[in-house]
Amino acid sequence: MLSDRTDQAAGLRRLFSGGAHQRFVPVAANPHISGVGLLLERLTTALAAQGGNTLIIDTTGSAPEAAPAVLEDPALGIEPLGNGLSYLAARGLPARLLAAQGSAAQWLQCLARSAPQCDVLMVHAGAAELSRFFEGRAVNPLLLAGEEADSLAHALASLRLLGSRHRCTQFDLLLGAPMSSPQAARAVRHLAGWARNRPGAVLREGVAVDPACGADASAVPVPLARLAAALLKTEERQADQGWHPGGDAALGSTSSARN
Fold first, then answer.
1. Contact (Cβ atoms closer than 8 angstroms) between residue 71 and residue 107
2. CA nearest 159: which of 172, 175, 150, 174?
3. Nearest to 171 by CA among 183, 184, 158
4. Which site in 48, 55, 98, 150 is 20 to 30 Å from 118, CA atoms measured?
5. 16 near 109, Cβ under 8 Å?
6. What is the pLDDT of residues 164-194, one digit of tens each?
């Protein structure tokens, strides 16, 4: 009987994780930063350099509204953008899924199965919507922030919400700021301090990317490349362990990069 239950649990983990090498990267949206598209572009460039084929599921207010057909067949909304990058417009989708199906998490599973060619599924959404997509599962988010105080406050509020609803053992920070910015260093220290006051949570990587500098796939800054590698490694382990990482969560350094 125990063996049967173990086999069943393993099957459910494989079902939720989609393809054998798929990873989910929850990105907590932040409306108080400009140039968020550039930040995500830098991140996807770094992921591509690691061999990742990324699908961005964008539920934010700046995204187009999700097409009705996407609720039943997620693959219909996938738009290839080239260079290992695809996009799925999903504004308003979590609330519509909750009303129509009672769960957004099941839809995310279906999307993973519908897009086996995408090994990185990046869910860009507000904290409350991320919570709907990852209901009942551990979430180690990537926070976005800028130099402004409002953006840092929003990032911290997102972290608090996700930390209260999910087991959050670690998180990462991607800042749209020059590497020399004192505000960037302050943001990293502030969020790291929050983690120190919350047993079991740690800020793994804090990376600053200058939005004024262009993306270059052949010259991804070392800190950004390290963040991409850490995201892939962590999310792969979560998929293998049924999205419930154990006590061996990787500890990382805080750093800054100029791109």
1. yes
2. 172
3. 158
4. 98
5. yes
6. 899 888 899 999 888 777 777 787 788 788 7
